[in-house]
C-alpha cells in the first residue's frame, strides 16, 4: 500500500493559481458573446457555455448530457455533426458556416471553428466548437451588392465580378459573354402608366433574366435605371445569341401593354452582346463599349432585337 503521504500534493501557491485560472475560464465562458461547447465522439454535449441560452429549445437542465440529434431538428443537427466528425477524423481545426434557430425562431448563421481535443497520447476524445453569429454581417454584405427593386446584383458587384470573371475565363480558356439589355421607350412607359407600374416592368425583366440565365456561374445585374447586364459563359457566340434571344422572347411573351412602343405595343427589350475570348486582351471599358454599341444597333434596328 503506498503511503498516503507519497501522493503528489500541490503547493498552496499552485492551488491558488489553478483556482484563479479556473475562475478566469468560467468568467470567459459565462460572458463570451459566442457559442462554446464540447461534444464526445458520439455527439453528446459535454460542456456548453451560457450563451447557448439564445438557442431555440435550450434547457439548462438537460442540454449538457443530450445528443445533438435530440437537441436539434435533423436538418440542423446533420451538418453540425458532419463538421464535428471532420474535425475529429482529420485531427485539425476546420472552419465552416453553420445555421441554428434562435429562441425567437429566426435562423442565424454562425462562423464556426471546430477542433479536436486530444489526450496526452494524441488520441482524440472530443471536439470543441466556437461559433460567432455572422447573420447581420452576412445580410449587410448581401445588401451591399444587391439591387433593392429587382434583387439582382447591383452595379457595384458588376464591377467587382467583371474583373474576376474575365480572369477566370482567360484561365479556363472559355468565351465569356457580356449582354446588355435595355427596356424600349421606358421613359414613355413611366409617363403613360406611372412610376410604380414602371417598377413592375423592371421586376418582370429581372424575372426573365433569372429564368433565362439559371446555370451556376451565370450572373445577372441591374446596372442602371432600365439597363441590365448578364455575364455568362457559353460554348460560343451562337449559343450566347440563342440565350439572348430567349431573354428577348421571354419579355415580349409577357405582352405587357405599352402603347407608346410602336410597332410592338407591348414592353420589349433591346439587347447587345460582346464576346470576351481568352486571346483578346480588351479592358473592361472597351468590352462594355462593344456591348453598348451592339445595343445601340439593336435600338436603331427597330428595338425588340438582339445585336452583336
Ligand atoms: N419606374 C422606374 N423608372 C426608372 C427607374 N430608374 C430609371 N427610370 C427611368 O427609366 C427611363 C429611362 O429612359 P431612357 O434611358 O431615356 O430611354 P428609353 O425611354 O428607355 O428609350 P430607349 O432606351 O431609346 O428605348 C427614365 O425615364 C428614368 O426616369 C426606376 O427605378 N423605376
From TrEMBL:
Species in which this protein is naturally found: Duganella flavida
Enzyme class name: transferase
InterPro entries recorded: Diguanylate_Cyclase, GGDEF_dom, Nucleotide_cyclase, PAS, PAS-like_dom_sf, PAS_4, Rev_trsase/Diguanyl_cyclase
One BP annotation, GO: cell adhesion involved in single-species biofilm formation
Chain ranges of the GGDEF domain: 174-308
Any one GO CC term of the record: plasma membrane
NCBIfam families, per the entry: GGDEF, sensory_box
One Pfam short name: PAS_4
EC number(s) given by UniProt: 2.7.7.65
Gene3D superfamilies noted in UniProt: 3.30.70.270, PAS domain (3.30.450.20)
Domain (PAS) ranges: 21-92
Catalytic activity: 2 GTP = 3',3'-c-di-GMP + 2 diphosphate
GO molecular function: diguanylate cyclase activity
Protein known as: diguanylate cyclase
